[in-house]
Write a structure and sequence with these properties.
Elements (H helix, E strand, L loop, with lengths): L2 H11 L20 E4 L2 E4 L16 E4 L2 E4 L5 H9 L24 H15 L3 E2 L3 H9 L53 E7 L20 E5 L15 E5 L7 E2 L3 E3 L10
Parallel strand pairs: 6-9
Antiparallel strand pairs: 1-4, 2-3, 4-10, 5-10, 6-7, 7-8
Length: 269
């Protein structure tokens, strides 16, 4: 682990403002860039957002240290798994382009297959983030609708009317086209709904969320973050969506999480 990464985690863990993003690391040449997060307590849910009421047992959730991908999984990253024979290819890009655009038309099983391939390749535990981890990462210390505030601001996210009336939103944008949040994470709000490890429960996050890396089978998965097709409120950090198991769509993608074996990070490369 680099000295800069240690220093960044120490500042964040000490409760300083989350404006200092830790240094990204990559476990292999075509692995996603990961950003280690120190963990802590996050207040989840928001009464202003549909299906995102604060949980009935209280809104506070503790999140252990973990790492999460700096961006949504791209077509290029996905293709490396396809080329290795570990992921099923053939995803339509709808003519928007591939490369550094986020992969679309994938299911939760596809996302888990990609995470399992990364785990085998690197020796580290990759997976989908839990719902609580996802909201903690998206908020980056904020309690507003979006990490930048309660009002939509032009040039912050790819969603319908998020860039003003003159912008046509006809699909995804390449990852990291918009500014990152305070943790250094791009496109947590907008661009694509992102699949999580949690099974869908209506109204609010469940009282007992699953443990990271769980294998519970879901009839439907929670997805987070909204997408290019939807209006701004759907891109709020607390916004929750439902995606039936086995269903793929051009508004659904994912980003991976990774366990940090030593609690705050390990040999970042």
């Amino acid at each position: 682990m680099t000295l800069r990464l240690l220093a960044a985690l120490a500042v964040l863990t000490a409760g300083a403002p989350a404006a200092l993003a830790a240094e990204p690391f990559r476990d292999c040449p075509d692995c996603p860039q990961m950003i280690p997060l120190p963990g802590g307590t996050v207040s989840v849910g928001d009464v202003r957002v549909r299906n995102a009421a604060p949980p009935p047992d209280g809104a506070l959730r503790h999140v252990a240290p973990f790492a999460i991908a700096r961006t949504e999984t791209t077509f290029d990253q996905w293709q490396a798994c396809v080329d290795a024979g570990a992921c099923e290819g053939g995803q339509d890009d709808h003519g928007w382009g591939r490369g550094d655009r986020p992969v679309i038309n994938v299911t939760a099983d596809d996302a888990r297959a990609y995470a399992a391939w990364l785990s085998r390749r690197t020796g580290h535990a990759y997976r989908l983030p839990t719902e609580a981890e996802w909201e903690y990462a998206a908020r980056a210390g904020s309690r507003t609708l979006y990490p930048w505030g309660d009002a939509v601001q032009d040039g912050r996210a790819n969603c319908r009317d998020c860039d003003g009336p003159v912008v046509e939103h006809g699909g995804t944008t390449p990852v990291a086209s918009y500014p990152p949040n305070a943790f250094g994470l791009h496109d947590m709000n907008g661009n694509l709904w992102e699949l999580t490890a949690d099974c869908w429960t209506p109204g609010a996050m469940p009282a007992t969320p699953p443990a990271p890396g769980g294998t519970e089978e879901c009839k439907a998965h929670v997805m987070r973050g909204g997408a290019w097709y939807y209006h701004p409120r759907v891109a709020a950090s607390a916004s929750r969506g439902r995606n039936a198991a086995g269903v793929w769509s051009y508004v659904v993608g994912f980003r991976v999480a990774r366990d940090l074996e030593n609690g705050a990070g390990d040999a970042a490369r």
